[in-house]
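Hi, here's the filled form for the chain we discussed.

Project: internal
Contact: R.S.
Residues: 422
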Amino acid sequence: MAGVVVVGSQWGDEGKGKITDYLAQKADLVVRYSGGNNAGHTIVYEGKKFALRLIPSGIFTAGEVIMGNGMVINPKAFLEEVSYLNDAGINTEKIHISDRAHVILPYHIKIDALEEKLRGESAIGTTGRGIGPAYVDKYDRCGIRIGEFVNEEIFKKRIHQVIEFKKQLYPQLNVDADSIFEEYKEYAKKMKPLVCDTGALLDEALLNHKKVLFEGAQGAMLDIDYGTYPFVTSSNPGANGVCAGASIGPLYINEVIGIVKAYTTRVGAGAFPTEINGNLADFIREAGHEYGTVTKRPRRVGWFDAVVVNQSRRMSSLTGISLMLLDVLSGIETLKLCTAYMLDDQKIYALPSTVEELERCKPVYEEMPGWKEDISNVSSFEELPINCQNYIRRIEELVHCPITIFSVGPDRKQTIILKEVF
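And the returned structure, exactly as it came back:
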């Protein structure tokens, strides 16, 4: 059996969609195991750019795709995405939705906005799509799961129960159970044929030696346990989330590929030790088109941070790294690599657990000469300028993990494989 996990190993937006799409060409199934429609990814397929939020990137090439039980799914957003793909001629009948995934409903979105407003200056900077409140309901045991959602009788009963409960917690919550039920029962009818026990489906596939690709959402530094809490998402987007989010055991996983930019970006609030400002940040942002797929917010830009990637390697047991957007750095005279942090008067090599400490961290930099050459058309490691080769090799040393893939542009043909994973 062959189980390969693709995980974002910084703060998200590393280019997971492209690598998942590339590897999906050899996979029989592609599984997404966490997150919701706050996690956008962009795919270039047959010369056309697609922006997906919920449906796994493997929809373009894999035999089948699974939306796992660890996801939170907005039915309206899902069906809009299905229509978007169908209009482009993409077959969506091969989607399987876990009956144990949780449903995002309108009250989750309203609670998300309400709580962000109440936080004031301490606002997390969520996308406002109800992700956090849906996960809260999951662990508070008042969530509605897909299996209940597609059973009209159960859904009607549950939506009234939950909204009555929510209004006691949030007196200002202005939602009507009957109107939500009438609208969403129609979405449920459309989704019902796709719903099944995806854990059993996946187990059968792996026992029959199928090639399975597990697709993470967002990035490891947004992990609810190991990320820069509280400026994180509400799930485990690293490989540490696969088993719970896809209903499999750890022995099914053979390879874990960490997707890493050749620099670092972050969206929203939170500590960012290697952040760059000014003209250089603008240059990288524009060259890399660093704007959120979902929110269109400009991403914050920083130098490559080996402390962050090492933390990701540890929590996901990375077996290889895919280094993305290497071409964006062409033309920068001197590049910096963060090798450690100074926390007050102590040099540290791992992220502290508190935001207050992380905000005090100062990056320890190592400088390397850049390259001027356009590398967007190279097809091998040997064709790269020597300074670019040295940059890659130094990153491997700093993060204790081989770079098995590198990318020099958005197209599939601009992906260079140094080691096959399937």
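Let me know if anything looks off before we file it.
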